[in-house]
Specification:
The complex is a heterodimer of chains A (300) and B (309). Chain A is mainly α and 300 residues long. Helix content of chain A is 69%, strand content 0%. Chain A has one domain: Orthogonal Bundle (MetI-like fold), CATH 1.10.3720.10. Chain B starts with a helix and ends with a helix. The chains are: A mainly alpha (300), B mainly alpha (309).
């Protein structure tokens, strides 16, 4: 811990010294890949939050005189920097809108899975007995069916709306948190600090919320970071197959689905959103790995 | 050991039953299945005829009992669309899926284990970093996007390989590569961490100290021990492979069961969807069961403690 504190500033070069110490404090020295990944994630988050302020056109605005215009670096014009799609809609504008929804669904979906799974895991570890048996049985059920197949069936049969999509995507991965939380709570319940607060007469809710949860939170957050790319990929795959986000809303996967039909004529429609997703999931995976190694080497 | 396996088998059957039941009710929560087959103006009398014919005039519970009873008699229902047995429809598509899945699985297991072991042996070098970065990249890549990029490059640009279909062996290459890359990536990652764990053990130092040749050290002492966690992971990847093949078969118009599933889901063909899910779930459950048993065989310590979960 002592090495985390950099020397006090003596040279007068305040700003560079501070920045260096931040990078060092986070253990980022030399981890250029992780830094680049973080920068990209921050950029995508910025676009998702504030993209509407610099989005050139409404994402649904069609322009039938300018269909399938190439991007500016492929001989197009600055009117449409990343070109237009089959209906003359601006690809850049659609990307910005798509990033917004993909990130939104990814983050909310991951949060749902994390909260639901952790809660059930804690419940299983607390009650033991038949409650635990049933919950672990549900985990087995979840594992036995590839999630995308379950998601496709539900979305096609039960119906599709943004809410249903987010809930379905959110269920993905709950069993991982449940297993993790269960085993961590089981071992925490044997620890002295829990025994101590229990013998002091603290209620169950307070024991879990004030003492156990803060201790297992780090691992759960790392798990959520590791799950996030999967959730983003799941949504994009469902949307690509036409069963996810429905027009007029748009997400990265859905733009790719349109681009697939114009692969020869206008490859940019598919390539642009694909690259955004790929670098996003890659960056989150890199940061997730780094976080795991740093915060919790026991997790695999 | 027998008791342990018996309990596992019972649990698996129970799990499968829950899956079948859950899927049955979830699919029917959507309302009248006839609405997706017939247009809106169809006379009630006609609808009633079909309701009786397909057995959906009965209550949900009656339908469920009939469905489960029929499963035991080997009757998986008829398709609403062409009136054929769902079993025949799925079986017709299955060989192609097995061909694609089998090829992908075997190639990526070999490639993944070799690359993972190589990365572990060259730990900390450029080899290690390169292989691991490629592995992370491979499973961060949306598989359908990789498929489109490969089509764009190898089929449309170079014109080496066909874009869609399944008539020749060349058709197999792109879908298998797309599916296999992701799988090989995650297998490589797990093999590497398992190998690193093993290489740290004292018996490896013993093997080294007694002067065993490098190859023998790796093939005799390291790999078998690293195989234990790796086998588990490979077993669990099977479910992932099936899920992935549903997407990839659709992108490459590969006439397998996965693409059939997407079509069946689109037109809400109950019998076919249910049968497909039943088959996928049983495959994954059996695979997990085998992994559990194999785990016990590979690592005798497990059977003493009675399971790892």
């Amino acid at each position: 811990m002592s090495s985390q504190h950099a020397d006090p500033d003596t040279s007068g070069k305040v700003a560079p010294a501070r920045r260096l110490s931040l990078i060092k404090r986070w253990g980022l020295a030399g981890e250029w890949l992780v830094i680049a990944a973080m920068v990209y994630i921050v950029f995508v988050l910025f676009v998702a939050l504030f993209g509407f302020t610099f989005q050139p056109y409404p994402h649904t605005q069609t322009d039938l005189f300018n269909q399938l215009q190439p991007p500016v670096f492929m001989g197009g014009t600055w009117e449409h920097i990343l070109g237009t799609d089959d209906l003359g809609r601006d690809v850049l504008s659609r990307l910005i809108k798509g990033v917004q929804l993909s990130v939104l669904i990814g983050v909310i979906g991951t949060a749902i899975g994390a909260v639901l799974g952790s809660f059930l895991g804690i419940v299983a570890a607390h009650f033991r007995g038949w409650v635990e048996e049933i919950l672990m049985m549900l985990v087995d059920v979840q594992v036995s069916l590839p999630f995308i197949i379950f998601a496709l069936a539900v979305l096609a049969f039960v119906g599709n709306s943004l809410t249903i999509l987010i809930i379905v995507v959110g269920i993905d991965g709950w069993e991982r948190y449940a297993r993790l939380a269960r085993s961590m709570v089981l071992s925490a319940n044997q620890r002295d600090y829990v025994l101590a607060v229990r013998s002091l007469g603290l209620g169950h809710f307070k024991i879990y919320s004030r003492h156990v949860l803060p201790n297992i939170m780090g691992t759960l957050i790392v798990q959520a970071t590791i799950n996030l790319p999967g959730v983003i990929l799941l949504e994009s795959t469902l949307s690509f197959l036409g069963l996810g986000v429905q027009p007029p809303l748009t997400s990265l996967g859905q733009i790719l689905g349109v681009g697939r039909d114009y692969l020869i004529l206008a490859p940019w429609i598919a390539v642009a959103p694909g690259m955004v997703i790929f670098f996003l999931t890659l960056s989150i995976a890199i940061v997730g790995d780094w976080l795991r190694d740093r915060l919790d080497p026991t997790l695999k | 050991m027998t008791r342990y396996i018996l309990i596992k088998i019972l649990r698996s059957v129970f799990t499968l039953w829950i899956v079948v039941t859950a899927v049955f009710f979830v699919l029917r929560a959507s309302g009248d299945p006839l609405l997706s087959v017939f247009s809106l103006g169809t006379p009630e009398a006609t609808l009633d005829v079909f309701r009786v014919k397909w057995g959906i005039d009965k209550s949900m519970w009656q339908q469920y009992l009939i469905y489960v009873g029929d499963i035991f008699r080997g009757d998986f229902g008829t398709s609403f669309f062409d009136g054929r047995q769902a079993w025949d429809i799925v079986m017709e598509r299955l060989p192609k899926t097995l061909l694609l899945g089998g090829t992908t699985f075997s190639v990526s297991v070999v490639a993944g284990v070799l690359l993972g072991a190589l990365a572990a042996l060259k730990h900390g070098t450029l080899w290690d970093r390169g292989i691991m970065t490629a592995a992370v990249a491979s499973f961060s890549m949306p598989s359908y996007f990789l498929a489109l990029l490969l089509i764009l490059f190898f089929s449309l640009h170079l014109r080496w390989l066909p874009t869609a279909g399944a008539s020749t062996w060349q058709h197999l290459i792109l879908p298998a590569v797309t599916l296999g890359l992701t799988l090989a990536g995650s297998i490589a990652r797990f093999t590497r961490s398992a190998m690193l764990e093993v290489l740290r053990q004292s018996y490896m130092r013993t093997a080294q100290a007694k002067g065993a040749p490098k190859f023998r050290q790796i093939a005799w002492h390291a790999l078998p021990n690293a195989a234990i966690p790796t086998v588990t992971v490979i077993g669990f990847q099977l479910g992932w492979l099936i899920g992935g093949s549903v997407v990839i078969e659709t992108v490459f118009s590969w006439p397998g069961a996965g693409r059939l599933f997407i079509t069946a889901v689109g037109v809400r063909d109950f019998a076919v969807v249910q049968l497909f899910i039943l088959m996928v779930a049983s495959t994954v459950i059996v695979a997990n069961l085998l992994v559990d048993i194999l785990y016990g065989v590979l690592d005798p310590r497990i059977s003493v403690t009675g399971g790892s979960k």
